[in-house]
Amino acid sequence: MATPEPTSPPRATSAGALEPSDPRQNSARLNRDERIRVLTLRDAGFTYLQISQQLQISYRQVQYTCQSQQATPKKARGNPPKLSEAEVDHIIEWITSSKRTQRMPYYKVIQELNLSIGKHALARALKKRGYSRCKALNKPPLSDKHKQVTSGFHTRIWVTRKAGEELEETCIRSSPTRKRGWMFWATFHGNNKGPCLFWEKEWGTINSERYCQRVIPIIDGYIRLLRDDIWLQFMQDGAPGHASKETLEELHSRGIYLSVRMQYSYAAYLSICMILMQHTYVTDSSEHRITFGL
C-alpha cells in the first residue's frame, strides 16, 4: 500500500530539486501517456517527488494525476486555439528573421503571411511564447562590450521581441553620429546675395547680446551701403536672439524697423537654404555640417 503524500510539495534544498529544466514543466496538462506513466510509478511505490524527478514534470502535476486517478485528461475548456504550435513557430521564425519584420505591426504581419486571424489573436499567441510589442531603444554610442551599461532612450519605433532582447541589434534604433556643425548666418535680397558670417565656436551660443554685437552692425552697414540705390525692408524669423526686446531696441536705434516678423515653416526654411546655396555662399564639405541661420 502506497504511503500517503502531503498535500503540499516538500521544500527543496536547491532551486532545481523539484522543478525540472524541461520546458514542458510550465504546461498545466499532461497527455494520456504521461498520466499512465505517473499512475504506474505510483502503484510501484514511488513518491510524488521521485515521480516528478523521474518523468521531468512538476510536483503539482504528479499530485493532481494521482489524486484524480484518471488516465484520460479532461477536455480543455474554452475554444481551441486558432493557431497550431507549428504555425506559431513559423510566424516567430518569420518575424525574427530581420529588423524590418520585427518592426512590422501585427496587422501587417497578418497581411504578409495571409493569416486568417485578427491582430488580437496573433498578439495572444505570441504573448504565450514571450513576445510582445515594445519600444525600440536608441543605440548606445558604446562598444558591444559595454553596451549593457545603459538602456538607451525610448523612441517611437516599435519592435516585436521577448523580454531581455531590448539590446539585440535588430531591436535597437541605430542613428548616425552627427558631424561637427557650424552656424552660418547670411542675407539676400531679390536675386542678390548679401553679407554672410560664420559663427565661430569660441563666441558661444547666439543670444541677444552677441547677436547685437556681431550681426546687427553687418545688417546696418549693408542697408546704409545700398540706401541711395534701393530701399530694403529687413525681415527675419522669430528666433529668441532675433525677437528679444534688446535686439529690437538696437535695430530701432539704427533706424531699422521690421514691418513683418516671419515665422518660417520648415518648407519655407528649406527653400531659403536652397536659394542661398545657389548663390554659392558655401561649398560642400565632408568635415563640417553647415546650418543656416536667417
Write up what this structure looks like.
The protein is an alpha/beta fold and 294 residues long. The chain has three domains: 75 residues, no CATH class; 83 residues; 113 residues, 2-Layer Sandwich (Nucleotidyltransferase, domain 5), CATH 3.30.420. The protein has twelve helices and six strands. A three-stranded mixed sheet has the order 2-1-3. Strand 4 and strand 5 form a beta hairpin. Helix 2 crosses helix 3 and helix 8 packs parallel to helix 11. It is rod-shaped, with a radius of gyration of 36 Å. The N and C termini lie far apart (95 Å). The C terminus is likely disordered.
Q: From the coordinates shown, what is the CATH architecture of the largest domain?
A: 2-Layer Sandwich
**Gyration radius over CA:** 36 Å
Helix content: 25-40%
Category from helices, strands and their pairing: alpha/beta
The general outline is rod-shaped
Helix and strand pattern: HHHHHHHEEEEEHHHHHE
> Order of strands side by side in the largest beta sheet?
2-1-3
Distance between the termini: 95 Å
User: Which band does the percent of strand residues land in?
Assistant: 5-15%
Number of helices: 12
Largest sheet: 3 strands, mixed
Low-pLDDT runs: 12-26, 149-155, 279-294
How many separate domains? 3
Mean pLDDT: 76
The CATH class assignment of the largest domain is Alpha Beta
Give the tally of β-strands.
6
* CATH topology (level 3) name of the largest domain: Nucleotidyltransferase, domain 5
InterPro entries: Homeodomain-like_sf, RNaseH_sf
Protein name: Transposase Tc1-like domain-containing protein
Region (Disordered): 1-31
Organism: Talaromyces stipitatus (strain ATCC 10500 / CBS 375.48 / QM 6759 / NRRL 1006) (Penicillium stipitatum)
